[in-house]
Structures are given as C-alpha cells and as structure tokens.
Amino acid sequence: MICLHVHAGVSIMPHNNQTAQGRLLTLARSRPFVRPRDLAGLGIHTGELTRLVRAGQIKKVGPGRYRLAGQRAGSEQHDLVVAATAVPSAVVCLLSALRFHGIGTQLPPDVWIAVPRGTRVPRLATPPIRVVSVNRSWFDVGVEQHRIEGQQVKVFSIARTVVDCFRFRNTVGLDVALEALSDAWRGRRLDLDELNRIAKRLRVQRVMRPYLETVVL
Asked: What is the pTM of this model?
C-alpha cells in the first residue's frame, strides 16, 4: 500500500514518474532507437518520452524514433545499425558495403542502403542515408546477415557489391567500380564463378567483361 501524507497543504506524491524515466533511459542506452510501441510492455507512458525530450535527455531523430541524447557510436558500423533498425527491409549496399567489407578506399559520409522498388523510406535526422531502389526480382541476390552491436544487419556480399558498383557506375563512378574489382581480386576475396553468376543475373556481365579480363589476366 502507498501512503500519501499531506503537510501544510502540500501533497507528497510517489516518484513513479522518476522510476519510469529511469527505465526509459536504461532502454535507450541498450538500443539504437526507442519507439513509443517499445514502452507498452514496460508499463511506461509515452508522455515520459516527451518529458525527456524537453529535458534534453532524449533526442527525436525521426518519426516515432528516439535516441539517447549525446549517445556515441558503439562501433564504426553504428550508423549501419541505426539505418537497418529504421528501415528493416534495407540492405547495406555500394559504398557503405565496400567500407564494411574493407574493400577500396571509400569513406562515405552517408549510409548507402538498397530497398525493394516502391518501398517507403522514413526520413532520418541521423545518420544521412542514400537510398537505391532495386528491382524486387533480384533484390535478395547476395544478401548476407551480419550481427553488429547485437542487431542483425543485412549487407550485400563482396561479389554482389562489386557487380552493383558497375551497375550504378554512373552514380558511384567507374573509378570506384574498378578499384573495388581490383582490390577484391588482389585480396583473393572474389569467387569468379559467383561474380559471373551475379553479373549475369543482374544483366551487367557484358559491361564487366573487358574490365574483368584486364584485372584477372
């Protein structure tokens, strides 16, 4: 039983709101995002989010997404986790996939993600993202699952990423595609059969052939 005492006309209330805020802050420290729907199971009213935002302890980073204010990246792939959490259907691609796999010298300021064509992507305050729409018929080709900071993140394989760099050479630059192919081949991280299979499936085999022959031979 909770007893409430009144002294000189002032009510002394139990600190349930402080307890709820403490649980909310603990939750925010454990994941890239907190969403209002995450609070129901913990018995936390969504109004606590608003209070903590006003207090500067929680930051709103997108529609229905909140993050601990001043939260620092747990790893250099932290932004990939944030993007994957915000867009569950997304696969890390192109420059961000090259960076993840340690191929080439690209240091993209944005997180590059591929989504099935027609997918609605929410706006994010952070990190900045570059969205590439991909035909649904070959969207799942070369998708890998990686566990980063306790979260499952989908990333295109090295072979798929190299092929995509040639497919989107007008976007990322032919020099980036050539660097990716050369670096992956020199590092013995490419399977030619897999590379050719994916290139054929994505209809870029003819474009890649002369460059591939130069690098491999």
From this structure: 0.71
